[in-house]
Amino acid sequence: MKPLRGECTIGLNRIYLLFDDMEFATTYHVCVNKLVLEQFGTEISVIPSTKFVAWKAKEVIPFTADMMFLQTLPYPQFSFDLTNGMWEGTTVTYVAMQVAYHLGFQRVILIGVDHDFKTKGQPNAEVVSQGDDQSHFTANYFPKGIRWQLPDLETSETAYRLAKIAFETTNREIVDATVGGKLHIFPKVRYNGLF
Q1: pLDDT, averaged across the chain
Q2: Count: domains in the chain
Q3: Angle separating helix axes 92-103 and 153-169, nearest 10 degrees
Q4: Separation CA 41–CA 16 (nearest Å)
Q5: Residue 22: how many CB atoms within 10 A of its CB?
Q6: Comparing C-alpha atoms, which of 78, 42, 85, 83 is closest to residue 60?
Q7: pLDDT tens readout for residues 35-89
């Protein structure tokens, strides 16, 4: 991740656990899942990034001057204007795509979107972590005793397709530089070839 230092970046959920190793903090930070905000809101509130968080979780995260609240809409759509609300698409990555669009980015490069989870079960079901997290980039992402929701990959793919259409019809693009990864909606690019 170190080559990204100096680039404009959007981090998600608990990416701040890597800030020391990366040697930089992301420019922006997006977190909309209420369970994540309930359990880690205090940690998220102090990261040195402009934060976009869900309005529905306003009671569980300490407010800071660099925090923007996002209103969640209940129906599938891509939001070209975040002041009108946005659909979460069951994944914070989709919300970040809408944030990137709203901020005016012409090209979005996805990094670390594995689109694959070791923990299996009913999509959106709330579970309690039973030990080291094997579904995220570090074992302490959702450590033992932490509540989280199982992914809904099918709905996420619906959301990603909406983002792809929205970007392409306005002469913008989303590409995927994830090494490996099982998401096949966006054109793949070589991570090392970006720098």
Answers
A1: 95
A2: 1
A3: 10
A4: 12
A5: 18
A6: 42
A7: 999 999 999 999 999 999 999 999 999 999 999 999 999 999 999 999 999 999 9
Q: In which residue are the tokens 């959007």 written? A: 10
Residues of the chain with pLDDT under 50: none
Between CA 97 and CA 156 the distance in angstroms is 12
Two tokens at 64? 């800071």
Amino acid at 97: M
Are 129 and 149 within 8 A, CB to CB? Answer: no
Task: Burial-class residue 84 by CB neighbours within 10 Å (0-12, 13-18, 19+).
Answer: exposed
User: Which H, E and C letters describe the chain, residue by residue?
Assistant: CHHHCCCCCEEECCHHHHHHHHCCCCCEEEECCHHHHHHHHHHHHCCCCEEEEEHHHCCCCCCCCCEEEECECCCCCCCCCHHHCECCCCCHHHHHHHHHHHHCCCEEEECCCCCCCCCCCCCCCEEECCCCCCCCCCCCCCCCCCEEECCCHHHHHHHHHHHHHHHHHCCCEEEECCCCCCCCCCCECCCHHHC
Pairing of strands 147-149, 126-128: antiparallel
* Parent domain of 148: 2-194
State the greatest distance between any 2 C-alpha atoms of the chain, in Å, as a whole number.
45
